[in-house]
Amino acid sequence: MVKALDAAGEPVRGERRINEQQAAIVRRIFREFVNGASPRAIARRLNEDGIPGHRGKRWSDNTLRGHAARGTGLLNNELYVGRLVWNRQRRALNPETGRKVSRINPPEEWVVAEVPHLRILDDDPWQAAKRRQDESTEMYAAVITGVRRAHENPLNATHRPRQLLSGLLERGVCGGAYVKRGQDRYACSNHARDRRLHQPKEYPPGRPGGTGDGRAETPGDGRAEAPGDGAGGSGRGDRGLCRGNQSPQPGAPRLEA
Question: Is this structure's pTM higher than 0.70?
Answer without folding.
Answer: no
